[in-house]
Structures are given as C-alpha cells and as structure tokens.
Specification:
The chain has helices at 11-17, 24-29, 34-42, 63-74, 82-88, 138-148, 153-163, 165-174; strands at residues 5-6, 9-10, 21-23, 46-50, 53-56, 79-80, 99-103, 115-119, 127-130, 133-136. The chain is of the alpha+beta class. Strands 3-5-4 form a three-stranded antiparallel β-sheet, sandwiched between helices. Strands 6-7-8 form a three-stranded mixed β-sheet. A two-stranded antiparallel ribbon has the order 1-2. A hairpin with a 2-residue loop joins strand 1 and strand 2. The relative contact order is 0.11.
Length: 177
C-alpha cells in the first residue's frame, strides 16, 4: 500500500483513477517523499515510464496508461491529438502505436519512444478536457485522425457522424462553408 494523499485522495486512489500512472509532482504534492518514491522504484513496485512519470506494477499496462503517462510527461499545456485523441473520445477502437501530443511552440520537448511531439499553438476552443486529460476537440480530432488513418479514415468519419453529428458540422462551420 502506498501512503500519502493528493488533494484529499490517497496516492492509491490517484493510481486507480489514472490507470496506474502518477507523476512525481503528484506523488510529492501531498505526503510522499523523494525517498519513498525511490524505495518504490528500488523494490520494483513502481517503474519509470518517462522522466518524472511512474507506473505502479500492480496495474495492467494498458493503452490508457500509456496515453496518461505521455500526457503527464508532456505537461498540462500539452494536448492529446490525432488518432490518440480519437481513441480517447471513443471514436476509434484501436489505440495507435504512437501517442500524438500537440505542445505549444515554446515547449522544447523531444519525442520519446512511443510519443510523437508536434508543435502547434491550439486555440482554446480546440482543446477540451475529457476524463482528466486535455485532448483536441471532437471536430479537430475527427479531421486530424481521418487524415492520419489514411485509407481507414473514412471509417472514422462514418463513426463520428453516427455517434456525434456535431463534429462534421462543426468542421464545415469552421471552414466557412
């Protein structure tokens, strides 16, 4: 059992809510010391997925855990984008092999294995919070992911239109048609 709290929630609660993933800042925020984190890493109860991002080995390493870890590493100004965002919105069944993160131009992140970093300054309207992560809004997600998926992109467009008629009309409206 991991001790400590994060804004009134135990660290174990954070791990459950975040698919077994936690940032160093979250762990330190209330209760955990650097020494406690080091002990968990040393005993193999936690492993480092990215700098300052850990995974509790008692949890399954799922696509959700990989995506949450990528977002935590990228920071709160980052946005899950492309096919990764389509998956997070529930518009695409398959998790992509690489998590796509859109980060503001001023951020100097270097891509890591399993994470593609794209620099772009998104408008506030193009970012939404879904299940604790910032992702591209549905309209932008559908557009970007359909292009990235190539030949199967039409399937994503079809799913989006069946599930949420809004994204296609939102894209058309934004394009000025």
């Amino acid at each position: 059992m991991v001790t400590g709290t994060l804004h009134g929630v135990t660290v174990e609660g954070v791990l459950r809510r975040q698919a077994g993933v936690i940032s160093r800042a979250q762990a330190l925020a209330e209760g955990m010391s650097s020494a406690a984190i080091s002990r968990l890493l040393g005993r193999g109860l936690w492993v480092r997925l990215h700098p300052r991002v850990y995974f509790a080995t008692g949890h399954p390493l799922t696509a959700e855990a990989r995506l949450r870890a990528a977002w935590l590493w990228s920071g709160p100004t980052a946005t899950v984008a492309g096919a990764s965002a389509a998956r997070w919105h529930g518009l695409w069944p398959e998790p992509p092999a690489t998590v796509e993160m859109a980060v503001p131009h001023h951020r100097r992140l270097v891509a890591r294995p399993g994470i593609h970093v794209r620099r772009c300054d998104l408008r506030p309207a193009d970012r939404v919070e879904v299940n604790g992560l910032w992702v591209t809004a549905a309209a932008l997600t559908v557009l970007e992911a359909a292009v990235a998926l190539g030949a199967t992109g039409s399937q994503l467009l079809d799913r989006a239109l069946q599930r949420q008629p809004g994204p296609a009309s939102s894209v058309i409206t934004r394009m000025g048609a």
